[in-house]
Amino acid sequence: MAVRNPAAIRNVALAGIAGGGKTTLTERLLFTTGATTRMGTVEDGNTVSDWTKEEQDHHHSLRPSVIHFEHEGHLVNIVDTPGLSDFIGHAIASFPAVETVGIVIDAGRGVETTTRRLMQIAAERNLPRVIIINKIDEAQVNLEELTESIRERLGSACVPINLPAAGRESVINVFDSHDDNAATEFSSVEDAHTAIVEQVVEVDEALMEEYLEAGDPDALDKGKVHAAFEQALREGHLIPICYVSAKTGAGIDQLLHVFASLLPSPLEGNPRTFITEDGSEMQAEPDADKPTIAHVFSIASDPFVGKLGYFKIHQGTLKSKSEIHIGDQKKAIRISHVLRPQGKENAETDAMGPGEIGVIAKVDDVGFDSLLHQGHDLDGLHLKPLPLPK
Ligand SMILES: Nc1nc2c(ncn2[C@@H]2O[C@H](COP(=O)(O)OP(=O)(O)OP(=O)(O)O)[C@@H](O)[C@H]2O)c(=O)[nH]1
Ligand SMILES: [Mg+2]
């Protein structure tokens, strides 16, 4: 049973203040990639993400919602998390399921306490981050000043990977493919390109020397720059800034390119650490042939389907109609299907491999933080507990 190549998977959690536009952005990504044929709105209560009645009544997300789409040959899973402070724990709980956290900033509101907290928590968990400035259509916002204030408050590792075009109807890439003559609202493609390449090469001494000698960011080997880019993300030395409007669609193609082709795959991300029954640490390996390790990061309840357990496969494969063990329970449980979530619609699959995010239904013994595995070799294994946020 063939499973998806983990190199062609990207998992991103969207986190940030309530009302920043994460659910609208998720809806826009689905629409732009053709996964849906119309865009719902939070106001009308018809988005793919906010599928529970409570969410539709409150016009806020209340738990993580998982959606997926295909872009540039990659399967992209998005975890749309709640921003309301009472529910932010659910957002943080989904971080072990992803390789990257996308911090959504409302252009009109800038960096808030929740933004800083989420940035810090993602960093403590060793997760690459990307900043997504949403609502750039709000004309009164000075995006240059906002970018400066983000760099002052969240650090100089935050560097634009694209720039709003003059007029804000689109956004211009400044990292990989770039057109130096394109008109940007502030800075220039050339300056922004140099700035991000300089930030990237700092993590690789040899590449840095090559750059200093050549004096031209485009003279560097593209493969080496890409490897350094992944390393810079992993080390938190680079936090790319992207500009979008979920409302108008500006910047969405560029954001999709960053998500699908530039962010780390499950093979490139920082691996999660687990604790074995005897107390020692082990790191999961995204290898389809190794024993299965799937971690349940969220639980939901559907009035028709019942209990749903959302999991990330950190190692091995999970097949439909197979037997699994939950935590250290002696008895195996037979699951019906491993499903690929799309809001409340869950598509049946035969099997899912390492790096995938899935859901199983109607397994009452599955709880938050449960570990799904097979056989008894991994009894008692659990995700390394992380310090609770202050
Ligand atoms: N002008 C403008 N408004 C937007 C944009 N994106 C979202 N909004 C509006 O902002 C409001 C909040 O959007 P949501 O998508 O619910 O925000 P959220 O981040 O999911 O909020 P929580 O689920 O509470 O965390 C809605 O009224 C959206 O229509 C945008 O790009 N531009
Ligand atoms: Mg939401």
Walk me through what this model shows.
This protein is α+β, with helices and mostly antiparallel strands and 390 residues long. The chain folds into two domains: 6-262, Rossmann fold (3-Layer(aba) Sandwich), CATH 3.40.50; 273-383, Translation factors (Elongation Factor Tu (Ef-tu), domain 3). The protein has helices spanning 22-32, 53-58, 88-93, 113-124, 143-154, 189-201, 205-214, 222-234, 252-262; strands spanning 9-16, 65-71, 74-80, 100-106, 129-134, 158-160, 162-164, 171-173, 239-243, 273-275, 281-283, 293-302, 306-315, 318-319, 323-326, 333-334, 338-342, 345-349, 351-352, 357-361, 371-373, 382-383. It is globular, with a radius of gyration of 21 Å. It starts with 8 loop residues before the first strand and ends in a 7-residue tail after the last strand. Magnesium ion is lined by residues 22-23, 50, 61, 80.
What is the 3D form?
A: globular
* Overall number of structural domains: 2
CATH architecture field of the largest domain = 3-Layer(aba) Sandwich
β-strand number: 22
The set of bound ligands, ions and cofactors reads: guanosine-5'-triphosphate, magnesium ion
* End-to-end gap: 44 Å
Instruction: Compute the average pLDDT.
Output: 94
Query: Could you name the CATH class of the largest domain?
Result: Alpha Beta
* Percentage of β-strand residues: 25-35%
- Helix count equals 9
Organism: hydrothermal vent metagenome
GO molecular function: GTP binding; GTPase activity; translation elongation factor activity
Domain Tr-type G: 7-267
GO biological process, one term: ribosome disassembly
